[in-house]
Amino acid sequence: MKLVKYIIIIIVIVVVAYNSVYFKKLDEVRASKTATDFNAAQYAQTFWNTKLMANLSKAIDISQLSAMLSTDPAKTFDTYSHALGIGNLRYFFVKGKGSITSINQDDVSVAIDSSKQNIIIATEFIFGNAVRDAAGFININEFNNTMDFNNVSAEINKIIREKVLPSFKTDATKGSKIEFVGAIELNKEHLDLLNVEVIPVKVAVMSEQ
To answer: Does residue 170 belong to any structural domain of this protein?
Structure first.
C-alpha cells in the first residue's frame, strides 16, 4: 500500500510539474518583442514627412473657418474638425497670412490679413495632441496601447520645437508679414474665437516683394 501511495504521489508531482512548465518557439518570442518595440520618434518623423507636410494645402483658411463658425458652428465642427475621442474639444488644421503685432515671451500675436482677426502663434509651450489629431491622418487602431499613441504626440511636438520654431523666432519682428499652417483647439460648447492659439507646423516670415 505504501508503495502504491508513493507511486501516486510521484505521478501527481510529475503532472503538476509538466503543466507548470511550457516552451515557446524562439521565433514567437522574437516576434512578440518586435511588436512591443514601437519607435514613436520614427513614426512621428514618417507622419511628419509623408502625411503632414505633403498635405499642407488641405488646411482651411483661418478667416474662412472663423466666418463659418460664426454662422453655422455645428455644421462647421462636423465638417472640418477632428478628434480621436468623445467630448467637446476638437481640432482644426488651419492656414493663414498676417502681420505680427507683438512678440511676447511665449508666443507671437498676429493680425490676420483677410479679416483682421487676432490670433496667437505658440512659440514656447508646445504640447498636447492638436497637431497629431487636427488633420485626421492618424488612426488610433494603428497602435497597440495609449502610451505609444501619446508618445507620438510628444515626438511631433518635439519636431516643432526643434525644427519649426527656431528660425521663425530668429526672423520674427513686429510688423513682419508671416504665413503659417498649424493646428488649433476649439471647444464646441464654449466657442471662443477671440483667443485662438495656433500650434504651427510651418511658419515663416514672408520676404518683401
So the answer is: yes
Residues 138-176 pLDDT 10s: 988 889 999 999 999 999 999 999 999 999 999 999 999
d(CA 96, CA 110): 10
Check pLDDT > 70 for residue 8.
Answer: no
SS3 labels along 166-186: HHHHHHCCCCCEEEEEEEEEE
In a domain, 16, yes or no: no
Is position 8 within any domain? no
Instruction: With beta carbons less than 8 A apart as the criterion, state whether 79 and 206 touch.
Output: no
Overall number of domains in the chain: 1
pTM greater than 0.70 (yes/no)? yes
Give the domain CATH number at 94: 2.40.50.420
Angle of helix 73-80 relative to helix 62-71, nearest 10 degrees, comes to: 140
Contact partners, residue 114, CB within 8 Å, separation at least 6:
61, 63, 96, 97
The reply to whether 27 falls in a domain is no
Question: Using one digit for the tens of pLDDT, what is the confidence trace for 102-124?
Answer: 999 999 999 999 887 999 999 99
Query: Which domain range does residue 66 map to?
Result: 38-205
φ, ψ for residue 30, nearest 5 deg = -65, -40
Residue 196 neighbours by CB distance under 10 Å:
19
For residues 156 and 48, is the Cβ–Cβ distance under 8 A?
yes
Whether the CB-CB separation of 172 and 103 falls below 8 Å is answered with yes
